Structures are given as C-alpha cells and as structure tokens.
## 1
Amino acid sequence: MGDWHAKVGSKPITGITGNFGLGDRNEAGDRLLEFCQTNSLFITNTCFQQPNRRRYTWTSPNGQYKNQIDYILCSQRWGSSLQLAKTRPGADCGSDHELLIAKFQMKLKTTSKTARPARYNLSNIPRKYAVEVKNSFDGLDLIDREPEELWSKVRDIIKDEANKNIPNNKTPKKAKWLTADTLKIAEERRNAKGSEDKE
C-alpha cells in the first residue's frame, strides 16, 4: 500500500492490472508496473468496476483535478481471495487522498485433529495387568531417586502395562439415522467377522 504518485492508466496488463484503471500512464506508473512484474504483484483497485468517484484516490485542493495515484498491491497467489477494492470518498481522514480499502476472503488450512488418549475398558481389568504392574513395581530401585523421576517411572509402567493388557473402550459414533437395534446388529457382525478371521 502506498502513495506512489504513479498513474498506471486504463490499459489492462495481464496479471498486474485490471480493466478499471484511470487516466494515462506516467513514468512513475511504468516503474510501479515493473516493480509489480518483478515481485509477482497485482494492483487491486484496478480490478473492480466502480463509479469513477470510487476509483479516484486523490483530489486537488480546489476539487478541479482527480487522479488514481494510490494503490493496494497484492501477491498474485492471493488473487482469488480478493473480493473488492475501492475508495471511500466520504471518509474524513484529514488528507487530500481518499481512504482506499480492499476486502479479502482468506481460506485458511484446517488444523489436523490431535489423537485422543486411549480410553480403557475399566469394567473388566484382566488379572494379568495387576500382576505385571506389581512385578514392575517390585523391580523399581527406590534408593537415592528424586520424586519426579520416580513419578515418571511409575506413570510409564502403568501406561505401558495398560496398553498391553487392558482393552480399549471403543464407542462407535452413532449416526442419527441408525437405531440402537441396527447398531447392535452391526456390532455383532463385526465381532463374528473378527472371530472368523482368527480361525
């Protein structure tokens, strides 16, 4: 964005200016176009058909002369996000330049969901789990150990043995159009198929 004193004119240049520039190009306009071409930029406020009063960016103090000499430049890769660019002639900004705005619709990447911690089926904890945890605890060296270090070791033992010995509590997502009976039949089929695969 800037007060370039450049006039790019009304002749469109593919990828850099649209069909709605104003006036004739000047030397500063040539330099601006070269800058845009080098840096893969386009001039947003030449891309939208607006009344002239929404395209002029500067008015002389006596109101006799009007020009489009201020621009918002944007990377060409964001071109599809641009929705509008125009001046706000009525805005009181204490300048002979008009307030120039651009509106973008950004498409942000969705963040990947973090994996939820395992949920164990605690209603039926196998005896093997208790035995393995006890054996691991019996083997712990408790002499000259820091409390934090001991806590980490205990936590790791419990987690490791739970992963090995306690089944996960699988709660299928319920589809609104499926009844409880249908879900039950589907679960029975899955279990039957699982037992067939093991045989």
Note: Residues 122-198 form one domain.
## 2
Amino acid sequence: NNYETKDSQLLDFYGGVGVFGIMNSEKFSDVIVVDNHQLSLNLVKKNCELNKIKNVHPILLEDRNLKELSLNKPLFVIADPPRAGVHPKALKYLNQLKPELIIYVSCNLNQLIKDLKELNNYQIKSVAFFDFFPQTKNLELVLELIPLKN
C-alpha cells in the first residue's frame, strides 16, 4: 500500500461476498461493498459480524445505477466485474468521480481493453497476471489505474 488511505473511502464494486473490501477494511475509514445479489451481501454482513468489523457497508445496487450512490472523497475503487465488464454508465460515472486509484480485476482481456478505453482519465501504473485456471487460456488480470496527470 503506497497510498494514504486512513481517511478515505473504499468502493468494493461488484464486491460479491466482500473479500476485497473486508480484507482492506482496516486501511480505510469506510468501505462500501456494492453488488446486485442479496445473498452475497448477506454473507458480507455475516463476515463483518463474525470478525467484528464495523466500517463495511453492503449495498444492493445494479451496476448501471452506481450514480445513485453517495460516495466520499478521497475515494479508492476495487472493481471485479463479471466477464461482461463494467456497465458503460458506471464507467462514465467512475471517470467523473476521479477516484485516487482504481484496482480493476478482470477475467476477460477483450472486455478489459474496451473498458480501459472508456476510463480515459486513467493510466495503467502496474499489471499482474494470475493463472487460477491452469491448462486453460484464461488468466485473471489485476491492473492498478491512476489518474492521468494534467
């Protein structure tokens, strides 16, 4: 962690059961886990209760409605979308929000390339590849995206 995050908010977008948000909850003042599946968000609540984590807040929301969410600055984002990528409306909103950092986790290189074109206020700082599915052509990619310098 090369970023000052203690007084910042983390958006765990497409958060599922909140693994990324919960793992990073000690580093942020506030964590919002957004997913469109209530059962997953119930598990976020349960994990937080079991681990006595108070600053993680699960929110049921469709990705295209991200703009309805009230987010604070400074903002950091972890996005782990399905193979179809981030909804275009959400991409546009993320670009407008200008988070300090976007960590984009992707299992679909072609969609990732399309999404990166829309995130035109950002540049790639680092990339990591993970082979979770040996002997297949599928790789998990994790990108660290930082705002373009003016």
Note: The helical segments are 19-23, 38-50, 88-97, 109-118.
